[in-house]
């Protein structure tokens, strides 16, 4: 992408980009801004101003002079290098989401690896917002249980299917531990919680064969989800365990169903 002359940002898009990067509470520090501007060969023409206005002055001046946004993109890439966010993963995800909403208007996106790629150019704010949270939007339309969002909010926002599914499966184990007070994990946790002789969780009164079958069925469904998703994803590299958007939606819907049944536990 270095050989491509990237189009300029419109003023209101550039302002949004600067406000995101220079956010008072969660953005870069003044020192970081100065260093990254220097690294990006963008003159720091207004260093005494507030952070986002300082950035806006520098970006606008450079963009007006060169009629492209290349060095601004260099700044963004440096500012969002993953190594800067070790121990601050959620900050990285949130900041990258907001930045990508603005970058989408020039047909560019910053990946989780800190690299740019070309994408279809957004034409409206709604277009950019919808692309950034498409998976979350689809799950909301399916009336997915709130626990799914609580356990994988960041991953959902960034359409990270691998980690969203992995985190959501862990939510089931956490839920079982909270309901039972057990400290076990995996099949041992599920089988103890759903024991037919001394159940710690009951989804019905276990009075009939149908009740018993339903009780065992939910137990087996949970063990199946653990075996199919949680165990393989815990032991395989992300690149070797690919999950498509449709697969993620189906799996998360199943996990949502489990949580909804647990809501009715006796």
Describe the structure in your own words.
Helix 9 (161-180) packs across helix 10 and helix 9 (161-180) packs parallel to helix 12. The chain starts with 10 loop residues before the first helix and ends with a helix. The chain has a two-stranded antiparallel ribbon with strand order 1-2. The chain folds into two domains: 11-131; 140-263. It has helices spanning 11-21, 30-39, 51-66, 70-79, 89-103, 125-132, 134-141, 146-157, 161-180, 186-193, 209-235, 245-263, and strands at residues 108-110, 116-118. Helices cover 62% and strands 2% of the residues. The protein has 266 residues and is an all-alpha fold. The chain has twelve helices and two strands. Residues 142-262 form the Conserved hypothetical protein CHP02391 domain. InterPro entries: CHP02391. This is TIGR02391 family protein. It comes from Flavobacterium hiemivividum.
């Amino acid at each position: 992408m270095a050989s491509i002359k990237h189009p300029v940002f419109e003023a209101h898009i550039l302002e949004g980009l600067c406000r995101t990067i220079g956010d008072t509470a969660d953005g870069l520090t003044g020192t970081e801004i100065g260093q990254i501007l220097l690294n990006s060969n963008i003159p720091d023409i207004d260093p005494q101003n507030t952070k986002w206005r300082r950035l806006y002055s520098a970006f606008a001046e450079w963009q007006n002079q060169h009629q492209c946004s290349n060095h601004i993109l260099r700044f963004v890439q440096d500012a969002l290098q993953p190594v800067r966010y070790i121990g601050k993963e959620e900050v990285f995800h949130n900041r990258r989401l907001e930045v990508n909403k603005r970058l989408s208007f020039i047909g560019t996106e910053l990946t989780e690896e800190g690299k740019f790629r070309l994408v279809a150019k957004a034409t409206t704010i709604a277009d950019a917002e919808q692309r950034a949270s498409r998976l979350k939007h689809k799950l909301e339309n399916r009336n997915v249980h709130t626990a799914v969002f609580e356990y994988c909010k960041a991953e959902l926002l960034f359409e990270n299917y691998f980690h969203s599914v992995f985190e959501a499966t862990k939510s089931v184990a956490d839920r079982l531990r909270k309901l039972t007070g057990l400290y076990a994990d995996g099949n041992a946790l599920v089988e103890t919680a759903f024991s037919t002789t001394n159940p710690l969780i009951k989804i019905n009164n276990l009075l009939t064969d149908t009740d018993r079958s339903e009780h065992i069925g939910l137990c087996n469904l949970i063990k199946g989800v653990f075996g199919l998703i949680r165990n393989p994803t815990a032991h395989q590299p992300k690149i070797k365990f690919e999950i498509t958007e449709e697969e993620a939606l189906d799996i998360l819907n199943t996990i949502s169903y489990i949580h909804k049944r647990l809501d009715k536990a006796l």
